Amino acid sequence: MRQTSNNFTPVTQPLLSHIQKFTSIPPDKISLLEPFFEHKTYKKKEVLLAEGQRCFEKFFIVKGCVHLSYLRQNGTEQTVDFAMENWWTSDFSAFPTAAVSKFSIRATEHTEVLIITADRQHELLQQVPELNEYFHLVFQRAYAACQMRFRFLFEFSKEELYQNFLQNFPAFVQRVPQYLLASFLGFTPEYLSEIRKKYLS
Amino acid sequence: MRQTSNNFTPVTQPLLSHIQKFTSIPPDKISLLEPFFEHKTYKKKEVLLAEGQRCFEKFFIVKGCVHLSYLRQNGTEQTVDFAMENWWTSDFSAFPTAAVSKFSIRATEHTEVLIITADRQHELLQQVPELNEYFHLVFQRAYAACQMRFRFLFEFSKEELYQNFLQNFPAFVQRVPQYLLASFLGFTPEYLSEIRKKYLS
């Protein structure tokens, strides 16, 4: 298989590009990264992480989209978050110690990911400590997004939440199954369908 | 002034202890840290960061408690989060580029903090890149707490949110002004007072 000049396969290249947006890795260390990651593809609705199972891995989305959810008392799935290209996802309370996950992660479409376990990450960061800068900045951004989301949850009515979402993530609204988007926004699918009609007309 | 053997003043010691819980800094580099931080105290209700002003700084809480809020259209303050000892706080969307803050941060009691600007942090991380590991792990934990909070917001009724809060942070519930806790939980102060009576009796 033809590889790119830095020894990254086309599959791992998106991760390297993402890392290089945030930090610079010494060129001689770049080739160390690839073997630490497992490349995996999931079909729509396939499970990456199951609630109630130990969480050993975190996932970098190369292509596709996943949703993070938990099972309600009544047996329905509540979507708490989504992740798309260039986002990391996992249950980050469970990941550092391989504890039992409080969330499931499932593909909402055909999805390619790069996977690393906490143990392998520990080894990787010993060899390439520069990656801590990347993860520092990536988690800072993820936390900043949470701060804004908490503000939106207080500030906006349900209809305004949808409008805001449509304005900031138009491609995303087209892309994810509407019943998952409804769940994420705390709507019934019927209510989402109603306000969608309103904004499309 | 007598200093501790590692040249950290008693004021900076809590930060060093917190760093050392997450990572190890080479002993010869520890003395580099102190000059990067400004120590400041705030009286109850004093403002650390004002919504609408540029955000230059992030804050490590040495002692005390602050709340993060924004101004609603109707002129009342909505509390979005709190931070206490050993937490970092700021508007983390604004901090990296000194952008305009979408939040205010205000002391809820007499509060001591260590302050660093983004520019100074940049210099510090060049001299002590090991601190990226600390910030990686600190932001991972903060993001993990957000994931759980989103789950709680979907899962619990308002009364259950309060119960959960009381169970997990009993000292905290005693410590913060009740009208701020009510705001944070999305209650009216009257409703919080009602359910407090119920759980105290």
Automatic annotation (TrEMBL), chains A, B:
Record-linked Pfam families: cNMP_binding
UniProt cross-references to InterPro entries, sorted A to Z: cNMP-bd_dom (IPR000595), cNMP-bd_dom_sf (IPR018490), RmlC-like_jellyroll (IPR014710)
Source organism: Taibaiella soli
Protein name: Crp/Fnr family transcriptional regulator
Taxonomic classification: Bacteria, Pseudomonadati, Bacteroidota, Chitinophagia, Chitinophagales
Domain (Cyclic nucleotide-binding) ranges: 40-127
